[in-house]
Amino acid sequence: MAELHFFTGTMDSGKSTLALQTNHNHAARGRVGRIFTTRDRAGEAMLSSRLGLTHEAIEVDETFDFWTYVVRTLTQGGRIDYLICDEAQFYTRDQIDQLAKVVDELQIDVFAFGILTDFRTALFEGSARLVELADRMNVLQVEALCWCGKRATHNARTENGVMVVEGDQIVVGDVDQPEGAGPAEPSEIAYEVLCRQHHRRRLTAARAKAVSLAPEPLPFG
Question: In this structure, are residues 158 and 189 in contact, taking their beta carbons and an 8 Å threshold?
Answer without folding.
Answer: yes
